[in-house]
Amino acid sequence: MTMKKFFLATLALAVALISGCERHSTKEVYYLVTANAALPYWHSAIAGFKQAAAQYKVTAQVVGPDGYDPQAELAELQKAVAAKPAGILISVADVSVLQPEIDAAINAGVPVITIDSDAAGSRRLYFIGTNNLDAGRLGGRRVVEKLGGRGNVVFFTIPGQPNTDERLKGFKDAFAASPNLHIVEVVDVKSDPRNAFDRTQEFLALTGPKKIDAYVCLESASGKLVSDAIKRSNTTPLLVAWDVNQDTLDGIKSGAIDSTIVQKPFTMAYVGLKALDEMFHYPPRQLTKDYSSDPFAPYPVFVDTGTSLVDKSNVDLYIAAAGQQ
Predict the structure, then answer these.
(1) Which domain holds residue 231?
(2) pLDDT digits (tens, 9 = 90+) for 35-62
(3) Do 47 and 157 sit in the same domain of this protein?
(4) Residues 232 and 269 occupy one common structural domain
């Protein structure tokens, strides 16, 4: 073999080895499965998911119903598992509905990480998202401070979602030392924030000892409509919202909304895809193992992406950040 042929053969082998060892490929498909996909909150998460996919040059698929529909989310999860993707991120709308299919995905060899709303009893590898109990306590302390530890409070929520249930528990923890602070009702908005508007109008008609002093939204869609109902009443009860929809930030700026508890959905999905990619290329010896009880586990139990309270003192920072997206 001549020196030239030897050089060309060596170069060809090197190229083949490099190509064969290339980590990322568009053939790697990662799914984000959620409910309420039409909400701005999920637009932010989807942006984080797709940005990570673009950086890694892999394929990102986003599926799930526009509204709160656990059965529709289950159907999308089943389709995703059947497609045998490299990994799945899922926000769990209803644990009782979705946990069996999460476990089935793991048993089928598909890594699953929960984000935003967890299924702690499932075989998912771990959870990335908000410490919702602490987030509720943060909001609860705000209500206690603003009302001086006394008054009537109404909550708007979606019962049964692990994240909203933990938020409510956090508020109750914060209220525990204030016996004159009363939870009048926990309203199920039934996945339609218009129900929050209608119910707020009914509450606003109450007077005297029954008057509502504070409204708290434990999900992102109700804040704007509760604020609209309050504006029509010419009253000024306290309103604490959730997340950083533009309407919510505008409401804080104008004074219609006192504050909001902020999560980081972009970060959840961005970090989540990168974690799944790591699992795909460096899989654990046992995907079905319960790593939560293993002190030498390669994975955490929970990655807290952080929360903060936004009010008039810092709302401009969040408005500016939103404008940069």
Answers:
(1) 132-262+310-323
(2) 999 999 999 999 999 999 999 999 999 9
(3) no
(4) no
Q: What is the pLDDT of residue 299?
A: 96
Note the pLDDT tens digit of each residue in 173-198: 999 999 999 999 999 998 788 999 99
- With CA atoms as reference, report the closest residue to 36 among 245, 221, 242: 221
Question: Over the stretch 136-168, which tens digit does the pLDDT of each residue have?
Answer: 999 999 999 999 999 999 999 999 899 999 999
Query: Are residue 241 and residue 140 in the same domain, yes or no?
Result: yes
Strands 150-157 and 214-217: parallel
pLDDT mean over 15-28: 61
Task: Kindly list the distances between the CA atom of residue 210 and the CA atoms of 182, 204, 232, in Å, as whole numbers in the listed order.
Answer: 10, 10, 19
**What is the spatial distance between Cα 46 and Cα 42, in angstroms, rounded to a whole number?**
6
Instruction: Please give the angle made by the CA atoms of 126, 132 and 134, to the nearest 5 degrees.
Output: 115
* Residue 290 to residue 296: CA distance in whole angstroms: 12
Instruction: Say yes or no: 159 and 284 in one domain.
Output: no
Same domain for 270 and 253: no
Structural domains of the chain, count: 2
Q: Are residues 78 and 212 in the same domain?
A: no
Kindly report the backbone phi and psi dihedral angles of residue 214, in degrees, each rounded to the nearest multiple of 5, phi listed first.
-150, 140
Alpha-carbon span 261 to 244, nearest angstrom: 8
- Are the C-beta atoms of 19 and 42 separated by less than 8 Å? no
Distance in angstroms (rounded) separating the CA atoms of residues 241 and 41: 13
| Alpha carbon distances (Å) from 26 to 86, 105, 111, 191 | 11, 21, 18, 35
Task: Tell whether pTM > 0.85.
Answer: yes
